[in-house]
Amino acid sequence: MSSAQKIGNNLKQARKDKGMTQKEVAALLHMTQQQYSRFERGIFELNYDQILFLCELYDIDANELFNIK
Questions:
Q1: 42: left (phi > 0), else alpha (psi -120 to 50), else beta?
Q2: Around Cβ 45, how many Cβ atoms within 10 Å?
Q3: Are the C-beta atoms of residues 41 and 8 closer than 8 Å to each other?
């Protein structure tokens, strides 16, 4: 599994822990659900602003998102 896929899995789990759908998160990021799903599948990389937004939304820090110990 690639690091992008691992990050995608972490995003998916954090979203589910917050009880949100991909569509809800995508709307907050001003994108389609299909675009957001690429992040969770590790196909498309997040930019800095998106990382910060999602960490705040999911109440996680970047170390947790990126599995940095």
A1: left
A2: 12
A3: yes
Largest Cα–Cα separation, the chain: 32
Domain 3-63 class? mainly alpha
State how far the Cα of 19 lies from the Cα of 46, in Å rounded to an integer: 21
Q: Are 41 and 1 in contact (CB under 8 A)?
A: no
**pLDDT single digits (tens) 45-65:** 889 999 999 999 999 999 888
Output the CA–CA distances (angstroms, integers) from residue 25 to 14, 36, 47, 49, in the order listed: 11, 8, 15, 14
Q: Phi then psi for 23, rounded to 5 degrees?
A: -65, -40
List the domain boundaries for the chain: 3-63
**φ and ψ of 20, to 5 deg:** -110, 155
